[in-house]
Amino acid sequence: MNRNTLVMETIRNTATSQLEQYGTVDLALLISSITNDYEFDVDTAREAEMARVCRSVLSTFRDKEGIRTVLATGRSGEFIDIEKCTDKEKVDMVVKRLENQIDGITRTLKKLKPEIDGQMSIGEMQYEQDALCIGG
User: Fold this and answer.
1) Where are the domains of the chain?
2) Selection from 89, 88, 71, 68 nearest residue 80 by Cα
3) What is the pLDDT of residue 113?
C-alpha cells in the first residue's frame, strides 16, 4: 500500500469511526491521525495554492446583476465566460456540472428533512429561533 493510499484510508477510517460514534468529526483529529504518514511536498502545495487563488479570482467575474459569468467546464483547469463562449460542447459541460451540483444539493437537503415524526427540520428550527429573537 503506498503512502497516499494509507493516508486516505486512515482519514476515512478515523472519520467513519467518529461519525458513527458521535455524529460529528473534528478536522484537527483527522489531521493528527495522519501526521506521521503524510508527506508534504512544497512544490505541489505551492501549485495547489496558486490554482486555488486563480479559481477564487475567476469566481469573482460577474455581470451587472451579480451573476457569475466565468465557470469551470469540468476539464482540468478549463473555464469559460458563459456570455462569450461560442463552443456549444463547453457550454453544455458547464450546464451539466451545474445540474449535477443542483441534484447533489437537492438530495442532501432531502436528507436534512425530519426522519422521525415530530422532529423539526433545520429550517423549522431556524424559524423558531428567529421567532424567539423577534418576540423576545
Assistant:
1) 57-135
2) 71
3) 77
